[in-house]
Amino acid sequence: MQVPANMRAMVLTAPGQPLALCTLPVPAPGHLQVLVKVIACGVCRTDLHIADGELPQPALPLVPGHEIVGEVVLAGAGVAHLRAGDQVGIPWLGYTCGQCRYCLAGKENLCDKSLFTGYTIDGGFAEYTVAWAAFCFRLPALYANAAGAPLLCAGLIGYRCYLKIDNNAQHIGLYGFGAAAHLLTQLAAWQQKDVYAFTNPGDSAIQDFACALGAVWAGDSTQPPPVRLDAAILFAPAGELVPQALAQLDKGGQLICGGIHMSDIPGFAYRLLWEERSIASVANLTRQDAEAYFTLAPKVPIVAAVKRFALHQANEALAALRSGALKGAAVLDLSLPVTDDHQPFT
Prior knowledge:
Layout: E1 6-11, E2 20-25, E3 33-43, H1 45-51, E4 67-75, E5 87-90, E6 93-95, H2 101-104, E7 115-116, E8 128-132, E9 137-138, H3 154-163, E10 171-175, H4 179-190, E11 194-199, H5 204-212, E12 217-220, E13 229-234, H6 241-246, E14 249-257, E15 278-281, H7 287-296, E16 306-309, H8 314-323, E17 329-333, E18 343-344
Parallel strand pairs: 2-18, 10-11, 10-13, 11-12, 13-14, 14-15, 16-17
Antiparallel strand pairs: 1-2, 3-4, 3-8, 3-17, 4-5, 5-9, 6-7
Helix pairs in contact: 3-4
């Protein structure tokens, strides 16, 4: 495949400002890196947090996007396991040092020197991107397309949250029924778990969507479910839901907070935490998570509900995510035509 000199990309120049469609040079892969032609890139709530300035110190100017499906077009020096034509996924975790105490303890998601795709290094809201080859992985054919993109973060983070829950948990609540929850519901239901979906008050369409995917109950986040929960996962970035979710847990129940950003958690009575209930957060992912997830996902099979946008419509995709109007996940599909209204970036 002949690589062009330039590419189109959506660029964040300052938090709180719309992304700009720009012409950039196609990046060259360095040592242990690969150049990837982007097939599609999911639009994640983390991208929204970055664009809105809720996550500090992005590497500006920045090409966001970390749910990348693409094809390797060029391998840099030292890359042996990937070659041109390989279809790969590129997740949020873009690089780790391999030498800090977290990496050495098998906790690379907590690496002191980690880099993150679409945050501290450029991501996939572009026609091409460069990534460290060790943090790319081959995708099953089922997911080497636009519909597979949301699994690269929404799927993986949901899965890591799910792994935090005791294997014997049967009644599992999911607060915030967006991209991550709709993917995780399919896995949990396949494993014969009872999923209880909590949505914005009055959002009957999303509640019906949750039940169609396998949830046994769906209701407002302010409502109690019909049973006490063994565990709950909070995907919504709303700190006020923490005490509400705790109040629905059975003795020994677990509350897992899956977001990278959340509004402040209000004070709550100790009785909500008593009887060995617990709260934990999830940070990032590991490559082992990805390998396990993409072995398991085709068996279910997990299928993402997606709304496709062209590259130049990234701001519209972020707005749809911000409004809570999406059923499933938003994806930038690079096969869709892009407007010519773009400018060189300097």
